[in-house]
Each structure stands twice: as C-alpha cells, then as structure tokens.
Design brief:
By secondary structure, the protein is of the alpha+beta class. The chain has eleven helices and twelve strands. Strand 1 and strand 2 form a beta hairpin. The chain starts with a helix and ends with a helix.
Length: about 475
C-alpha cells in the first residue's frame, strides 16, 4: 500500500515539472505534428493539375502571376501558329504609326534612318477572357513569343532593329473581348530613290513601306486605323532639310509567285535648306569669278601678276568642284550645282585665255612696229613683256589709221535715184562699215581694247547667267 502511494506521488511530481515547459514551447504532441506534415506533403503532390503553395507564391510572385496569366488567356489550349479565323475571311489588322525622329538622311547611300512607334490592332477571340470591370491587361515582350502577331516588315529596308534597353520595347494589351493592341519601337534604315538633277535646290519624296511577309490579301488585310490621322509626328528639326508634308497612303503589291499583298506607305516630302550651300559653294565660287576679273585692270605687261592671279583662281575652282563631287553620289546625269560650278570655272578659264590673247596681240603689235622702225633700237620686247608696272600706250607712237578715199568722203554726192541734172543734196555722207577682218586687225593693232571690252562683257555675261540659273531652279 505504501509502495502504491509512493508511485502516485512520484508521477504527480513529474507532471508538475514538465507541464510549464509544454505550455511555453507549444508542443503538446510532436508525433501528431510529424504525421500532419507528411500528410500535407503527400496531398500537395498528388492533387490534380497541381496547386501553387502559398509559401512558394510569396517567394516567387512573378512566376505565379505568369502562370495565372497563361491560364486566364488559355494560351496552352490553342495553336498560335495559325492566324485568327484560319480558313475563313482575311483578318483585318489596323496600323497606327507615330514617328519619333528622322535620324539621318544620306545622299551618298540614298537612304534615311527613322525611329518610330509601330502599333497593330486586331481581334483574336482565342484570347478573350471574362472580366466584370472590362479592364484590359498589359504585358511586355515575354508573352508575345507565345501568341500570334502580324508579320509586318519594311519593304526596301537595309537595316532595322527593335530597341532593347533596358528591356525589349514591346507592349501588348489584351481586352476582354479579344481585341489586341501590339506596339513596338523600331529604328529602320530604308532606301530612298533620290533625284539630284536640281541639287541643292531640290525636293525629295521618300516613303517607308509596310507589308505582311507571309499573308497575302486573302489572309490578312492591312489598313490605316484612323485614316489620315493614323500617322502622327513629333516636332522634328533636321540640319539640311525641313519637312514639308507627312501623309499616309495605301496600295497593293503584286508578286508573281505569291499573289497580291496589302501595302501601306509613310510618305514625307523634304525640302533642302539652301543657305548651307550658299555659304560653302555658291559664295566662294562667285568670289573666285570676281577675283579673276581683277586681271582686266592690271597692265597687260605685268605678266607675273596676271598669270599668278589666273592660275590661283583656276586651282581654287578645281578644289571647290572636287569637294562638292566627293560628297555626292556618282550619278550619270548633270546636277544643278554642276552647271553652276562648271560655268563659273569656264568664266575663270576664259579670263586666263583673255590675257593670253592680249599678250599675244601685244607681242605681234610690237614686232610690227619694230619692223616698221616705229620703236627705238634700244627697245627690248622681252623686257617689255616681263615689265611689272604701269605702261602707257602714249609711250609708243601708234600708226595712224588709213584715210578713206576722197570720193567716198565727199559731202556732195548724188543718190542712185536722183536725176543727174539735179544739184547734189547737201549734208549727205556715206560711211563704209568695217568688215570682220578689219575689226580683227584693229584689235591686233590695239590690244588694249581687248581688256576694255572684257571689263564689260564678262560681268554682263555672268550676271545674265545667274539670272537664268536662279529663275530656273528656284521656282
């Protein structure tokens, strides 16, 4: 009996010591807790189609949201290699473009570089989802790779890329009824067939063409979403051009092996700024032509001065022509700037030829006078040609012009219709016009007249040329 009482007291003492520890740690039945964890793990593994653990969702919420989006849009249930409405009518795809900038225009390569936002609008009922608030869902480029998008490409493009900083600049927005907005930011370099016949007073008409690569008009119909308002531009300032007009248009393109395709055009008209070329080309050319005329006022016997001036202007004009040609494409027709430069070069070259003619005529004149004894024996023609100073024609005695016969200079003569018996008419005088040969002989015997005529003929001719040139190409 005493042994039983002693055992009961010992058990009570042990229970009194261990009970507070159990209350603090909260572990009443560790065996039961262990069996519960095993049950939950096996249950979560065997559940149908899997279930996202709440702890996993807290650790990787992005992955969980992506899985929910794919389930919401039922992406895994459809084959997006086929277009919407496959086998039926052509799917309409609206296009909306906002031009951000025209980065460069190259005359040598005949192309332009443009950055734009290209937006597509179409409807794919396979992506429709239920929504009480009718709110759209927006995604980035990671979802685009798992769904169907139009295969629009740029015709005549040389290079193009989608911006990918800091991620690919792609946006897709899905509405509950299946309507889709697909936007992408692209920089494209495309061909522009330029006509330089009026360069640099030209106007260029370039266009960027959009077309579906795989789907012809029986499968896909491209159109401008909002008509003429589908093309919008930011305020753009170009260095050598100003934009006269931006307008969209559409048409059809035919390929012999694949059929007809819808094609959209982004047309823009560029007018070149002329002030840059006035400063770099036209004004220097005019100054060189004017400088070549200075030799007309320099004495014809100042050979070093006139020759060096003529050679300098000719070489400067050659440098200007070479510089302009190197910055232009090698076209097979004549440009407006070529006409102006080569005509100006011709005026400069003729001024050098003019002095050659003056010098030659002066030499002939002096040789004739030397033979006739009109020049002193001490006169040296070589020193005269190399004379670098002022020379007056009065220093040399000129041969007087031959007088006309007395019968032709008579002030009293009869006209052919006058009666021989009538008295002669007073005050009538006949003047014999000089022939071409006599005029040439006059210039050869008086070479200073060539410079005198050139001082008027060259400026008037160049002024006439400029009037015709700017009236033709400035209109």
């Amino acid at each position: 009996m005493n042994a039983v009482l002693l055992a009961v007291k010992w058990l009570c003492l042990v229970w009194a010591v261990t009970w507070p520890v159990t209350m603090v740690t909260g572990i009443r039945n560790p065996g039961r807790r262990r069996h519960k964890d095993v049950y939950l793990g096996e249950h979560s593994k065997n559940k149908h189609r899997g279930r996202i653990d709440h702890k996993l969702m807290r650790q990787d919420s992005t992955k969980s949201l992506l899985i929910k989006t794919e389930q919401l849009l039922r992406i895994e249930e459809h084959d997006f290699a086929m277009r919407p409405g496959f086998g039926g009518a052509a799917i309409p795809v609206g296009i909306d473009v906002q031009v951000e900038s025209i980065d460069s225009i190259s005359e040598v390569n005949m192309d332009f570089t443009m950055t734009l936002y290209l937006r597509h609008y179409w409807k794919d009922e396979r992506l429709a989802f239920p929504s009480r608030s009718n709110v759209s869902r927006t995604f980035d480029g990671r979802l685009v790779k798992k769904m169907w998008v139009p295969d629009v490409f740029f015709v005549h493009s040389k290079r193009s890329f989608i911006h990918d900083t800091t991620m690919e600049n792609i946006m897709i927005r899905v509405y509950p009824d299946g309507s889709i907005l697909y936007s992408v930011r692209i920089t494209v370099t495309a061909l522009c067939s330029m006509d330089f016949s009026s360069f640099p007073l030209d106007t260029q008409n370039c266009s960027l063409e959009l077309e579906s690569y795989a789907y012809n008009e029986n499968d896909l119909m491209l159109y401008w979403k909002n008509g003429n308002d589908s093309l919008r531009t930011d305020e753009m300032v170009l260095s050598q051009f100003f934009i006269k007009k931006f307008h969209p248009s559409s048409g059809l393109a035919f390929y012999s092996s694949t059929g007809w395709y819808n094609r959209l055009y982004i047309n823009f008209i560029l007018r070149r700024h002329i002030f840059f070329f006035m400063l770099q080309t036209y004004f220097p050319t005019m100054l060189m032509v004017l400088l070549s005329w200075v030799s007309f006022w320099i004495d014809r016997r100042a050979v070093p001065a006139r020759v060096s001036l003529g050679i300098t202007t000719v070489l400067t004009m050659s440098t200007i022509i070479t510089g302009v040609s190197s910055s232009m494409p090698q076209v097979s027709y004549v440009k407006a700037v070529d006409i102006y430069l080569w005509t100006s070069f011709l005026f400069v070259f003729l001024s050098v030829i003019e002095y050659a003619a003056v010098n030659y005529c002066s030499t002939l004149e002096e040789m004739r006078r030397l033979k006739r004894g009109k020049l002193p024996t001490s006169y040296n023609t070589r020193k005269a040609m190399a004379f670098d100073g002022c020379f007056h024609d009065s220093d040399i005695e000129l041969t007087p012009f031959p007088r006309l016969p007395t019968s032709m200079t008579s002030s009293h003569h009869r006209t052919p219709l006058q009666n021989p018996e009538d008295p002669p008419i007073e005050g009538t005088r006949l003047r014999r016009q000089r022939s071409v040969q006599e005029n040439v002989d006059l210039l050869l015997s008086n070479s200073y007249l060539i410079d005198s005529y050139s001082r008027m003929a060259f400026p008037l001719s160049y002024l006439l040329f400029n009037t015709i040139y700017w009236s033709m190409y400035s209109s």
